[in-house]
Amino acid sequence: MDGMTIPKVEKFKYLGSIIQQNGDISDYIDQCIKGGRQKWKYASGVLRDNRISIGLTGKVYRMVVRPAIPYGSECWPIKNTHVQRLMVVEMRMIRWMCSYTRLDRIRNGAIRDLVKVAPSRIR
Known about the structure:
It is built from 5 helices and 2 strands, in the order ββααααα. The protein is mainly alpha-helical. It has one domain (25-115). It has a two-stranded antiparallel ribbon.
């Protein structure tokens, strides 16, 4: 390009995705988790409101927050560690929404049934 050299980099952002030289997607997953948390933060007034039924808050979560996390995952070269990280983030959000902590010792499946949120299908 007119004698100009293009520097070699380890990673760069292209069309919203972070592409790494080694093919890893960990940084991109971090970005997706951050985007999901941002949507969660915006909706937290509704998600934590005790006057709104847990079924309705689950519906808001499914419509607003959940799609933001795995956006574009159809073409990810995903590993089990990535799936685990995404599932942990989602369960933290759902537990917070229901005012439960890990110390309450309530199984994830029971909480998902209460909120009517099926497990993620990222693979």
